[in-house]
Amino acid sequence: MGPAERLRQAVASDVAEPDDRELVARARHDPGAFGMLYRRYSGRIYAFAHRRTWTREAAEDVTAATFERAYRHLDRFDTSGAGFGPWLFRIAANELVDHYRREGRIRTGRGQRALRALSDDASVDDVERIERDDDVRRMLEALSTLRPRYQQALSLRYLAGLNPDEAAEAMGCSKPVLAVTLHRALSALRRAYDRTERADEVAS
Amino acid sequence: MSRTSRREMRELLERAGRRPVPRGVGAIDSSDPSIVDDDESTRSLVEAPGLAVATAEMRTNGASRGGRSEMVALLEAAGSRRVPPVDPAFLDRTEARILGADVDSLAPRRERRSRRPAVIASVAAAIAAFIAVGALAGLFGGGDEGTEVAVWSAVDTIVVLPDGDRVEAIRGLELPDGTVIRTGPNGFARIDGVTLGPDSEAIVEEGRLRVVSRAAPTTLASTSKQQAPADGPAPPVVAAPVPDAGAPPAPQQAPPAPSAEAPAPTNPPSAEPSPPPPPLLPLPEPILDLPLLDDLRKLLPLL
After folding, report:
1. Are A180 and B167 within 8 A, CB to CB?
2. Are A176 and B168 an interchain contact pair (Cβ–Cβ within 8 Å)?
3. Is residue B109 included in any domain, yes or no?
4. ipTM surpassing 0.90, yes or no?
5. Are B98 and B160 found together in one domain?
6. How do B208-213 and B201-205 pair as beta strands?
7. How far apart are CA A157 and CA A177, in angstroms?
8. Contacting A residues, span 124-163, partner chain B, CB-CB under 8 Å
9. B47 lies in which domain range?
């Protein structure tokens, strides 16, 4: 191996980003390492929170609280268990449950319908988009009424984009148990959605 | 949405999938290995003939899948929704606050130390209440999910949830109504006191297990014959009557699974139909399927 090759490898090893476990181990003594984890995951956590809460302010609150809690409890993270990502998403899912406990239900839909009624010149695509957003918001409203475990399972699997293995790790259960939990959670969501829809129809 | 058909939902999803999503902060990175194509999960739907029949039967019996699919579609639409980029100023501010602050000063939004005794007491009270409520719910069959059927033990057994998800049967797994349980050629499962031998199929209905088909006890020869077509259709399963609660218990000396040392059938195959031979190795009968317990189960909700 020539000097040029050695130099190239040395540069590459400097440039290569350390993996999560290594960063977590370092972050217990070095805040800068946690900063790297923060930059690595803050976008995904924010996106997860935003998809669930639909507002920038709430998403920022949840994101900040998630990383604060993670930093505070970094010593509880077991490097031999689930990865840092699932662990972080689990914290975020818990923060979201807390958020809805504090804030109560989200009330959505009416504003969108009012907008639809006002904008007569809205295109078909606009109306379709608003209607679809209405449905999604109503579903999220129904989601916030479920028991915490169901909220966590559905959020982690569908809104955080975790695959079944990661979601099971984040939930601290096996894949079969996650599948059963998701099945029940979807049934509960369906019922809650119907209730929300009926309530909206009565209100309008 | 309730008026939205599944076809429309699929179109919505397809449209959402075609929509350009910016890379960078706040957007889903399609190259991210942690984000998978959810079609993977639907591809794992069970195609085994017996299960297909059972699941189709369940659907026609009212275990609707449409509503659940709509929920999944909405969840996926929410999960793929475009998110506005996160404010860089917020990220910088938060990072500086977290990393610049002493760990102990971060958060406790509640004064945990001073409240510890009260918290412990309230947690203990909550746990006690939870156990009491759980016990009552278990006794009287209350709660969202009704009576639970659970796997006691299982080997080479799969569970097909009503939505088509196929998972391995593991000890302690609770089985909702509509779940199909199928044991493999070397399978064995004990579910709520009912024993399923190899190549058996059962379904959970109204919080109870109903044996749909139970393979006749097999000999070495017939077992190897059944295992031969690996990818072909499943061998016909000899249906056995659902265990009668009033029937006398099966001989206890019989092992739960067929033994490889069992003698081969002595009668040569004949073209003429002949009455099936008596079981050589009868499967153990359900232990808890006693008439008295059944009556008690029916009475409990009335109390």
Report:
1. yes
2. yes
3. no
4. no
5. no
6. antiparallel
7. 13
8. 132, 134-136, 138-140, 154, 157-163
9. 1-28+36-103
CA distance B287 to chain A (A): 26
Are B258 and B184 in contact by the 8 Å Cβ rule? The answer is: no
Query: For residue B13, is pLDDT > 70?
Result: no
Interface of B with A in 136-155 (CB under 8 A): 144-145
- Asked if B59 and B196 sit in the same domain, the reply is no
Closest residue by Cα to residue B179 from B156, B145, B202: B202
Whether residue B214 is contained in a domain is answered as yes
Give B262-298 pLDDT, tens digit per residue: 444 444 444 444 444 444 444 444 444 455 556 666 6
Residue A41 to residue A151: CA distance in whole angstroms: 21
**Could you tell me which chain A residue has the CA closest to the CA of B99?**
A31
B172 and B70 share a domain? no
The gap from C-alpha B49 to its chain's centroid, in whole angstroms, comes to 18
Residues 172-201 of B with CB under 8 A from A: 173-176
Do B99 and B164 have their domain in common?
no
Q: Which residues of B touch A144 (CB under 8 A)?
A: none
Say if B114 falls within a structural domain: no
Residues 63 through 122 of chain A touching chain B, CB cutoff 8 Å = 63-65, 67-69, 71-72, 85
Residue B212: Cβ within 10 Å count: 22
Looking at domain A18-106+144-197, its CATH architecture is: Up-down Bundle (1.20)
CA dist., res. B29 & res. B220, Å (int): 54
Q: Which residues of A touch B161 (CB under 8 A)?
A: 179-180, 183
B189 lies in the same domain as B290: yes
**Number of independent structural domains in chain B:** 2
Same domain, residue pair B94 and B150: no
pTM above 0.90, yes or no: no
